[in-house]
Amino acid sequence: MGKLVARAYGIIDELLARRKGGREAGEPRKDDMLDVSLDNEDEWKNNNPVIDRNNIKGLIADLFVAGTDSSSTAIEWAIVELLQNPQSMQKVKDEFRRVLGTRTEESDISQLPYLQAVLKETLRLHPSVPMTYYKAEATVEVQGYIIPKGTNIILNIWAIHRKPDVWADPDRFMPERFMETDTNFFGKHPEFIPFGGGRRICLGLPLAYRMVHMVLASLLFHFDWKLPEGAEKDGVDMREKYGMVLHKETPLKALAIETYNRK
Ligand code: HEM
Q1: Full-model pTM
Q2: What sections of the sequence does the record tag as coiled-coil (predicted)?
Q3: Is there a binding annotation on residue 202?
Q4: Which residue's alpha carbon is at the smallest distance from atom 5 of ligand 1?
């Protein structure tokens, strides 16, 4: 693990050095996290000695760790659930036909309620981050239970999302359950918290919201998806592999067939 972290930090060092060099050589700004961090580096150094180059490296590493697997695994689970549920796949395609022209744009997301419901249902069943951890800053009482200051708290998002007294037929993939509700991703509905909630809600939620919907929409709009012959016959391995991120036990293999008719 130590070696991997050192390697990741080495890559970030290189990125920072290259960008710093580029900025000094007058290359155009990219106005991304790296530029903003480097802009602030001197100010941080003078006014806040706690934040230095190491913290910037940590910040960039955190964004990679927290933002990559969590998003890609959500897309993989959505596609495999749709492959297992052809009626839902058909509804996604029907919605595209009604709403989209020849390509997908970020502004289309709000016009695609069924696609949004598919992502919600995917993250209900397979929350990319299945558990999250807190420490009580003060002694509090929650529903009659005393939680002493300093207690480590593990929140099992996966279990909350499958509670049978809250969710009808909890293990079934049914995007329709989200069509008639205002349940959203912002942590306001305690029974549905794929991005957590409160002060520590996922920092990348606005980015993840756009990115995951957009990638999913593009993959489903531009390609028809099919399972390979073996999987069609023997079924797909839907087991989850527990970890910081909830991967598929066996990565999905699927055939993508380009849909030329939309060009
Ligand atoms: C489908 C995609 C994603 C899911 C499901 C997800 C989920 C979560 C969850 C459940 C937490 C813990 C929240 C809590 O403890 O209440 C979290 C934290 C976090 N996420 Fe995400 N995330 C996703 C994508 C991203 C992206 C794209 C980024 C950044 C580029 C990101 C950055 C972070 C960071 C920095 C934290 C820690 C926030 C803190 O502790 O204050 N996430 N995420």
Answers
A1: 0.90
A2: none
A3: yes
A4: 128
